[in-house]
Design a protein that fits this description.
The protein is 44% helix and 17% strand. It has ten helices and eleven strands. Bound molecules: protoporphyrin IX containing FE (HEM), the ligand Nc1nc2c(c(=O)[nH]1)N[C@H]1C(S)=C(S)[C@@H](COP(=O)(O)O)O[C@H]1N2 and molybdenum atom.
């Protein structure tokens, strides 16, 4: 392939890995497995492309007389690519590593974002537009397609190799099993650092408002009256999952009691810290406001007195320490920001209850 075509392919592969990586964070239903497959294939396609690029630039990197500032930048970029690829593969093959409080998967995501920024900057500074000659020609096209197919083939081979090796149990999301069916004895985590004070169940109240006919305020005892059980898997984007028997009040029943209006489209769950997320009405009806896990009352770390259990959604959407349900007629554009600001609110820092 022509150097330009290789460079543009690399940019495309990085863009694809980045896009599918971000999309994977909100993918948790089994039928969404292709997101993860495409992500792995894009990463391995990139690996093959880099081989070609390295063969081209290596002489320049190794010869001090041919180095300039751009060489330095290029070398740094190569190292970040290697680390991003290596961390993804190492995670998939069962490795782990804690550096500065982040595990391998956390680092992989940070490196992936860093790499995407670096490649974007590099393209803005140096990219040369593609010319007809770069893409025309049967051999060139065959070569380019072979690399894409090669990425897919490598991914398939890696999957079957992974099945043959003794690796930690892994879901299609890449997350590893932890403390399933062991009640409160599974890992606890926050998106950033939400750390509210423990909440006394007898003083806690749940308010239900927004697009409802009868705004309600319920006590913990109210939630204990008619409970359901649900088996569901909490799958954290930080790389662990835990399947549990959850017990609590079905959200559907609470919405009925509050007289949800015809115009309702989204149901938003709000934590005492301000951390919030919403589900479409139909999906909210399948969720549970859990008070218990594995037969025991939730511990504070797991969101006591009440946390959201949203089957098929990633862990970060399972709001802990829920204080309010807000029925909405429109999407909640501000919820993403709430994930990042809640830890800095007084309640999120544990300064008030
Ligand atoms: C942009 C540069 C990136 C590259 C080159 C890259 C590459 C890779 C590779 C090669 C793997 C191993 C996949 C396999 O062989 O099955 C992987 C796994 C993974 N990556 Fe990335 N990645 C990038 C960015 C990201 C980002 C930005 C995220 C999330 C926001 C992410 C999330 C993941 C996850 C969750 C896995 C594990 C998935 C699994 O087990 O199949 N990656 N990545
Ligand atoms: N209020 C609030 N709820 C939250 C979080 C948070 O930071 N604040 N973290 C989320 C994340 S990222 C995950 S994975 C799960 C973790 O639940 P656990 O601590 O019970 O394992 O809670 C979710 N609910
Ligand atoms: Mo998480």
């Amino acid at each position: 392939m022509s150097p330009r075509f290789t460079d543009w392919s690399i940019a495309l592969a990085v863009g694809f890995a980045f896009g599918s990586g971000i999309f994977s964070l909100v993918s948790g239903r089994p039928e969404q497995w292709p997101v993860f497959a495409l992500h792995g294939m894009a990463g391995l396609w990139l690996l093959l492309l880099l081989w070609g690029k390295l063969r081209r630039v290596l002489p320049r990197l190794l010869d001090p007389r041919r180095r300039d500032r751009a060489t330095l930048f290029g070398t740094a970029a190569l190292i970040v690519v290697a680390l991003a690829l290596g961390s993804g593969l190492w995670w998939v093959f069962g490795g782990d590593l804690f550096v500065a409080g982040f595990n391998l998967l956390n680092w992989h995501i940070l490196l992936g974002i860093g790499l995407t920024l670096a490649v974007s900057a590099h393209m803005i500074a140096r990219a040369k537009p593609l010319r007809g000659g770069d893409i025309h020609g049967r051999r060139r096209m065959l070569h380019a397609s072979a690399l894409i197919l090669g990425g897919a083939a490598l991914w398939t081979a890696q999957q079957s190799l992974g099945r043959r090796l003794v690796l930690p149990a892994r879901r299609f999301t890449g997350s590893r099993e932890a403390g399933s069916y062991a009640g409160n004895a599974f890992p606890s985590t926050s998106w950033i650092a939400d750390q509210p004070r423990p909440i006394a169940a007898d003083r806690w109240r749940l308010s239900i408002g927004g697009a409802v006919a009868l705004p309600l305020t319920l006590s913990y005892a109210d939630l204990l009256i008619e409970q359901d059980q649900l088996e569901a898997t909490l799958d954290c984007t930080g790389g662990f999952y835990s399947t549990q028997i959850w017990q609590g009040a079905p959200v559907e029943r609470l919405l009925k009691r509050a007289g949800m209006l015809e115009t309702a489209r989204w149901v938003s769950f709000v934590s005492v810290t301000g951390y919030r997320w919403s589900l479409p009405v139909a999906e909210a009806a399948t969720a549970l406001l859990a008070t218990h896990v594995g037969g025991a009352a939730l511990t504070h770390d797991h969101g006591a007195p009440v946390r959201l259990v949203a089957p098929g959604r990633r862990g970060f959407e399972w709001i802990k320490w829920v204080a309010r349900i807000e029925v909405r007629t429109e999407r909640d554009a501000g919820q993403i920001l709430s994930l990042y600001t809640s830890s800095f609110s007084p309640a999120g820092r544990g300064e008030e209850s």
